[in-house]
Amino acid sequence: MSTPSMVLYYDEVSPPVRGVLLAIAALGVKDRIKFEYINLFDGGHLAADFLKINPLHTIPVLRHGDLTLIDSHAILMYLCDTFAPAGDTFGIPDTLTRAKVFNMLCFNNGHLFQRDAEVMRKIFRGEITDPTNHLPPIEETIDALEHFLQKSRYTALDHLSVADLAIVATLSTLNLLVPIEANRWPRVHEWFKEMQALPYYNEQNSVGLEKLRGILATRIKI
């Protein structure tokens, strides 16, 4: 077997990484990618060799020949364009479909994940030990997700897309801080349960999530 030409730099504690891992599993292309582990909590992302690849010291990073992608959402779109054949669930056949998927990827990147990251940074920097007063902005974005899911079965389309994979990786992390209750967010709760039933969900998301939970539990009560 030839050496995979794509390289993914990852640590599964990261929600954006887990979104990409879910997509790789969904597309069935794990054997076509080389995985390079970067230990976030040991400062691996700050190592000189990695900074040459991504001076912003974030993961995931995907390298494919001369191409280097440093944003998980760009990686997700590239994986779809590269590996999802015509007619595939994850294929993006037209401009309208691309716009809908990209819109929800931007929602995750600009709103849902940013609210998560803001609180997590404060926790891991030791700035807060009780996140209660920092949760309303997170709840607001989950309210927005509830609104979106009232309009379609999945977050972007009426079938599964990479937007769902990115968002569930973030939402499952937020669920550690803000439990997704059916009485407040019925559609989000229903969608979340459906996503958790995906055959690759546990291996590609739950493992990293539980690893993060263990680290988080040393900082706050969860």
Automatic annotation (TrEMBL):
CDD domains: GST_C_Delta_Epsilon. Residues 94-222 form the GST C-terminal domain. The keyword Transferase applies. Pfam families: GST_C, GST_N_3. Residues 4-87 form the GST N-terminal domain. Belongs to the GST superfamily. Theta family. This is glutathione transferase. It comes from Anopheles culicifacies.
